[in-house]
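subagent[fold] <- orchestrator: predict structure for attached chain, return tokens only, no commentary.
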Amino acid sequence: MPESCPRKSELTGARGFTFIELTIVIIMIGLLTSAFFAVGRTYLQKALRDEIKNEQVLIRDAIRNFLLVQEQYLPCPARLDVGPNDPDFGMMTDCNAAAPSGVTSVVGMRDVDPDGIGPLGNLVPRPNVRIGAVPFRALGLSMEESIDPYGNKYFYAVTETLARNEADYDA
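subagent[fold] -> orchestrator:
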């Protein structure tokens, strides 16, 4: 019986990987990479949430300090429709006047029906609510502290009866 010819790998002593082995390694690398990306994305989202929470605490504390200094009034919201180059950016508006552009005034209503399921005819008026941006200049905050990590201005709302009127405010 004739001997079969030796394979090239038998002659050189080199042994390669099979297609199955390479496929399994590539799949394992892909799974590990996707797991690392998922963990990294979760970590980044948590870091952004923590930053937002810290900024909200800072804004809350600045509003409390404003209230302590001004004794009984809160600042009116700033306009939402102005950019950093506008002189009104971050400045509180006048709550004595009509709401300017960029600040919404909402009529407050309250249901006085004790069980809460009565007809809508039991609504009584409440003070109007002004909704706008955080007036960071009146609160002594920086512009960066009034904008969330996604680049959006933080919203701020206050009833007109609790708001400090700009005419009465000494900055």
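orchestrator: received. Logging for downstream: The longest strand covers residues 123-133. The chain has three helices and five strands.
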